[in-house]
Amino acid sequence: VCQAQPITLMKNSCDTLIDYCNDVEADDKLGLVIYSHTNSDGAIKEAGLTSTLSTVKTLYRQRQAGHYTGGTNIYAGMHLARLELENNGRHQAFKMIILMTDGLPNLPSNNPSGLVIQEANACLASKIKVMTISLGANADTSLLQQVADITGGIHFTVPGGATYRSEERRVGKE
C-alpha cells in the first residue's frame, strides 16, 4: 500500500491491469490514447491496439499530467479510442475503454460535457463499454458516472489522499 498522487495512482493501476492481462494469457490487446493534445484532434493515439503490452506500459510510464498541454478534453480521448476499437479491434471481441481523469472536461471550449455524453452514446451504439475512473477531488464524478451508465460500464472513484492497493479481482465478460 502506498500513498500516491492521482497520476501515480493511475499508472500503478494500469500496471496491475497489464500484469493481469499477461498472467491470464488471453491474447488481449491494449492501446493508449492521451488527451489533451495540441493537434487538431485534441488527443493522440500513443499506441494502437497491440498484444505487446509492455510497449503500452513504457509509454504511459513516460507521461506526466499535462504532458502535451493543459486542459481536459475527455471527448477527444474517448472519440479517438472508439475509432481505434471500431477500426482495429477483433470483430467478435469484447471492446472496452478505460477512461481515467483527474479533472473536469474544459476542452473544447464549447459544451465539453455535452460532447462527452454525445461520445458515450456513440460508444453505446458501437457496443463499447466505458469504465470510468475519477481520480482526486476535482474530477467530475457525476459526468463520469453518467458515461459509465450510458455504456453499461462501471464508475470508480478514487478520492484525493486515497491509497493504492493491488488486489486480484476477476472481471467477467457479459
Task: Describe the 3D structure.
The C terminus is likely disordered. Strand 4, helix 4 and strand 5 form a beta-alpha-beta unit. Helix content is 39%, strand content 21%. It is globular and about 40 Å long. By secondary structure, it is α/β, with parallel strands linked by helices. It has a 3-stranded parallel β-sheet with strand order 4-5-6. It has 5 helices and 7 strands. The N and C termini lie far apart (31 Å).
What are the main properties of this structure?
174 residues, alpha/beta, 3-stranded parallel beta sheet, two-stranded antiparallel ribbon, 5 helices, 39% helix, disordered C terminus
Main sheet: strand order: 4-5-6
* Strand percentage: 15-25%
Poorly predicted sequence stretches spanning 5 or more consecutive residues: 164-174
Mean pLDDT across the residues is 83
Coarse morphology = globular
What is the strand tally? Answer: 7
What's the quick description here?
The protein has five helices and seven strands. α5 (141-151) links the parallel β5 and β6 (155-158). The longest helix has 19 residues, at 6-24.
Task: Give the arrangement of secondary structure elements.
Layout: E1 2-3, H1 6-24, E2 30-35, E3 43-50, H2 53-61, H3 74-88, E4 95-101, H4 112-125, E5 128-135, H5 141-151, E6 155-158, E7 163-164
Helix pairs in contact: 1-2, 3-4, 4-5
